[in-house]
Amino acid sequence: xxxxxxxxxxxxxxxxxxxxxxxxxxxxxxxxxxxxxxxxxxxxxxxxxxxxxxxxxxxxxxxxxxxxxxxxxxxxxxxxxxxxxxxxxxxxxxxxxxxxxxxxxxxxxxxxxxxxxxxxxxxxxxxxxxxxxxxxxxxxxxxxxxxxxxxxxxxxxxxxxxxxxxxxxxxxxxxxxxxxxxxxxxxxxxxxxxxxxxxxxxxxxxxxxxxxxxxxxxxxxxxxxxxxxxxxxxxxxxxxxxxxxxxxxxxxxxxxxxxxxxxxxxxxxxxxxxxxxxxxxxxxxxxxxxxxxxxxxxxxxxxxxxxxxxxxxxxxxxxxxxxxxxxxxxxxxxxxxxxxxxxxxxxxxxxxxxxxxxxxxxxxxxxxxxxxxxxxxxxxxxxxxxxxxxxxxxxxxxxxxxxxxxxxxxxxxxxxxxxxxxxxxxxxxxxxxxxxxxxxxxxxxxxxxxxxxxxxxxxxxxxxxxxxxxxxxxxxxxxxxxxxxxxxxxxxxxxxxxxxxxxxxxxxxxxxxxxxxxxxxxxxxxxxxxxxxxxxxxxxxxxxxxxxxxxxxxxxxxxxxxxxxxxxxxxxxxxxxxxxxxxxxxxxxxxxxxxxxxxxxxxxxxxxxxxxxxxxxxxxxxxxxxxxxxxxxxxxxxxxxxxxxxxxxxxxxxxxxxxxxxxxxxxxxxxxxxxxxxxxxxxxxxxxxxxxxxxxxxxxxxxxxxxxxxxxxxxxxxxxxxxxxxxxxxxxxxxxxxx
Length: 739
Hints:
- The protein is an alpha+beta fold.
- The protein folds into five domains: 2-76, Alpha-Beta Plaits (2-Layer Sandwich), CATH 3.30.70; 91-203 and 319-390 and 687-737, no CATH class; 212-312, Calcium-transporting ATPase, cytoplasmic transduction domain A (Distorted Sandwich), CATH 2.70.150.10; 401-427 and 563-681, HAD superfamily/HAD-like (Rossmann fold); 429-560, Calcium-transporting ATPase, cytoplasmic domain N, CATH 3.40.1110.
- 49% of the residues lie in helices and 19% in strands.
- The longest helix is centred in the last third of the chain and has 35 residues, at 674-708.
- The radius of gyration is 34 Å and the shape is elongated.
């Protein structure tokens, strides 16, 4: 069966031995050429090969091994063959046969380096050891070059190095032949080591989830504890999390109150208090008290699993800079081979220059051409971009910013304007009762427990609304709890909803009505002064809840949707970073929009917008300013998030799944102060990539000129190339620590 013209059969393989992005491309291209393979993709960040098509596993495994790599067995998939950061480079070399041979070659070539290159002795046994070193370290390289040429019909760096070493043997430079191959093999291994360190930053996300949970079951009326694998837990199971333990599953607190460290999910350093009814996430750390949780997601569907999956898949959405480098490398290598051939052939054929090294010690043109082949290795160029992107994405994930691909982190660096939804994004999205008004004090004043009118209005409103889940009802309940009047009256009886006006009920024999200004105009006794003052307050962007008893207005409550903590700081930081326009898009009335806009610091706002109007607003802002990002959290924001160059969803308990699925970036913590960090990181990543590319090309260009002038030896060229690759890799990995 096929979906969209493509087979449903999809297989994922863990590939071992890939040291750079060029290795990933060779595996992908080679497997793509197998019969029945419809799509072959390799994610260098995770080392995984995805194959779509009804192809046998053995065929794929055989092709990967033909290309010089290996496929992890099922029992190896959750293991890492080496743990950079926990072990050293020598241990890493010992993990694979080809790197062991490189290590052997390094030992064999050492006499040639010391006695031949440094001290100038030309002893036959030194040359023999150098040839043995070349064979030991070079066999895997030659085999890989031949396989790639035969299967992919492409010339790669292994081919260049093989030709250079063979050429060096032809002209009698045995020590250099050995050194070229050994240094190249060690350089490739070092690239693999540093790449594995970057890759482990993604694997480290997986290590924060405990594999075992304590499940609570009832046996003969008693609660029993049993340790089970998290994969065995089902939605609805009850689990116990002891003080100091990592929480193994997403869940809701049933019993206990504790402070939880949520840094693994949100990047938030402060502890968050959790009590019955609150949501907790797998991988977070429980505080000082035990919690009993009800499991809400299966292990493969919990929050941390989704984060890991998205980070792993992020590399498949390649950034434009990465696609450019990949394409550049495809024609760069053949071009270099042609150029090296011309340098080796033209001067001897047309100008009578020496082809081999003459007796006066100068370098012949064959040697110069071979040196050019060595320095022209594209590894530094190919690896500079993906390592930088992997490091940036991994760092962002640890800080609670989830990029869905290198494409989007690069796009974010070009953003000129940012549009924001209001409710739940710039504001908390949760109304709070902040003031009250009554017949005894005509002006609104802050709620206070010693104000009898305040407490009476709150208590009556709570009695009517206490069974409602409406946000305003919850705000009233919270205010009643804070003032200590939540139990002053029992829940109202005969509760009736009055559409468009409010709700009414009987409290201790009195008819209590709770509602809007429209309710007041529908038979509630109130003065003209009351009406004028209430309308003026409403025009300032405040929501009012009026309380009437037996047909008379007795009080009014003032509710506000407070700006989200950190909104002003975040928008100020974005302005400092050079964002030209910060625009709020909302469906609220203009007076409400203006009130919030002044509090959070946007440069402009557009009010009374339906979801389709937000889409139009995004299009208009793009035409005016250029690349645009849209930030939102609700279902109604999803179309605008999808249309923007970069859609950014605000995470948290109240955010919608549609917004998070549609967005290109998710802020896991409901805090806009993560947004300036994401923007700074994207710009730092692009600066790092540009520097790496310019540095690699610049140094190579210098050594190409030196090689053509006969001023550079092959082993110097290898050291230079290896040094460039390591430096750009380490420079890219600095993004792991950027804050």
